[in-house]
Amino acid sequence: MSNETDDLSKKYSGISAWSIRRPISTLAITSVVLVLGILFSGRLAVDLMPQIDYPHIRVVVNYPGVTPEVIEEQLTRPLERNLSATENLVEIHGRASEGRTYIEMYFDFDTDIDIALQDASRQLERARTELPDGIDPPRIMKMDPSQNPVFELAISSEVRSPIEVREWVDQRLLPQLSSIPGVGTIDLGGGKEREIQVVADPERLRSYGLTIDHISTLLAGRNIDTSVGNITSYEYDILARTETRYRSFRDVADTRIPIRQTDRTIRLADIADVTDSNREQRLFAYLNRGESVQVSIMKQPQANTVGVIENIQNRLDELLDSGYITPDYDIEVIRDDSFFITSSIQSVTTAAVLGGLLAMIIILLFLGSIRRSLIVALMIPVAIIATFVLMNAGGLTLNIMSLGGLALGVGLLIDNAIVMIENIFRHQTELGKDPKTAAHEGSREVLSAVVAGTMTNLAAVLPFLFITGLAALLFRELIFTIAFAIIASLLAAITLVPSLTAMFKDSGQNRGLSGTRFFQGFNRGFDRFRDGYHSILVKTLKRKWLFIIASVLLLIGSIWMIRGLGTEFLPSVDDGRITFRFTLPMGTSIEPTNEVAAILQDAIDEMPYVETQYMTVGGYFRGGQISIRGGMIDGVVQLVPHADRDGFAAEEWVSVSG
User: Fold this and answer.
1) How far apart are CA 358 and CA 356, in angstroms?
2) Which domains does the chain have, with CATH numbers?
3) Residue 319: pLDDT above 90?
């Protein structure tokens, strides 16, 4: 046996010959790759889109109660003038609206956005000397898609007041959600914020010689806990502080106000109406007609989107089961980014399984061997799992683009394996060689063709890495994933396929499945098809010019028909989530806006398959930013699952509602 192995090693060389001579080592290496691939697949970050450092910075400054004309004159122009000095800036433009201005800054795609953010922050500090008093602190941020919320909730209660719901969410629920691994910023919107209102009586103030400024300063100084240093003795040393911060509404009403030029004091409630109320509300949030609080959850930059959302849902389930969240709270999910990711993963899995089954059927029909069909089908999971190893080494993530690359590469994964196994099968059956010799000579014969075909596929996709702009940021992971899948399929085809084929002996073509009537009939039918194709090809070659003209006309017709095809960035996914925006004339107050919102709610209730509806009235709350705009209604309608809609698509719902 050793002499035979030595003879084969001298006669045949290369990676395919090595894998044939050492099948146990080949299977062991394959097992290691599979284990590493399964391990790394669990560590790959799962997200909706690739991580993109988009060269876009936004500056937001709020100036409540000021008209757009004043905003443009006092905020927008000074900011544009100073921020235009930022290095590598390509474009800058501002937008002024009531009480707010936006400054959008765009840079070259090869700019380090973190350095640009630091430079823009320095220019913003210079601009603050020219801005008026009374503005909110300016905010500067990178426009990173990963900073968008991945999960949003709407919380309401039919038993508790909107103030109690807002306070419970802020004080009780948010600390529970913030402690979840991977959770970043959590923002609140809607609901009513508790506020102790003090409305002074001018006549009483005048009679006691007091002013509004005096009362305001006194209350601000009273509502703090102040450190007063250490109290020391021979036995102890205690850090002391004054506990004067208000703990309740009654504490505010009982505040003692000193009367000037006397030793007397009076209660605040004697000169003012003190009420436990809420801040003036200009933005309303409604969940199924009831006032609600919106919770927007952002993940940390490197966190796994699907894992974070699963952890959030598990934590909510735990809080519900433990009674921490009482039954009177109605919690509805109004945004869940994991739906698209899990749908993509399911699509890739389905494509891989169907591809393997179809490949098995085709190989089974042409070769009549279950074992060889299983070898080809085995290449798909092996190549995909090996691709996970390369993706982890390349720092890629599982997202729509990379999963799309895997789905696109499924067809390419088995091409090399089919070419290799078909040629080995030909040497074994038609030329009568033993399995090992057929594997050696069959693999050596097509090795250069398989490698050349793989290099051709790589040469077709790798140039896309040299494109620039947003497309380069989006499709980089797609190209790398396709390249990794092609390389993995090549390595599996030139090592694992010859090794496994050499281990299977075949005792004749007319034995087993190939000798059955079905397969013999299939072979006779295919032979007739091949003969017919040959005769058509001969006739076509006699009239080659006519064939060339017909091909050119077909190409021109195809190009003409392409013009009528629609285009979109990503295919639509029917998750049953429908968003809309309704805008009333500028200057509309909140009362008529709420009336229109009620009419819209009635109309939506009459529509079919509606599960929940959520609206923000008087502006919108998205991406952690609150925008107050009178006359604006922003809504989200969640339909029941697609399986429960009797084939009624979300697009049909929109057309019917319109």
Assistant:
1) 6
2) 2-48+341-505 (1.20.1640.10), 56-143 (3.30.70.1430), 153-191+290-336 (3.30.70.1320), 195-278 (3.30.2090.10), 510-572 (no CATH), 577-657 (3.30.70)
3) yes
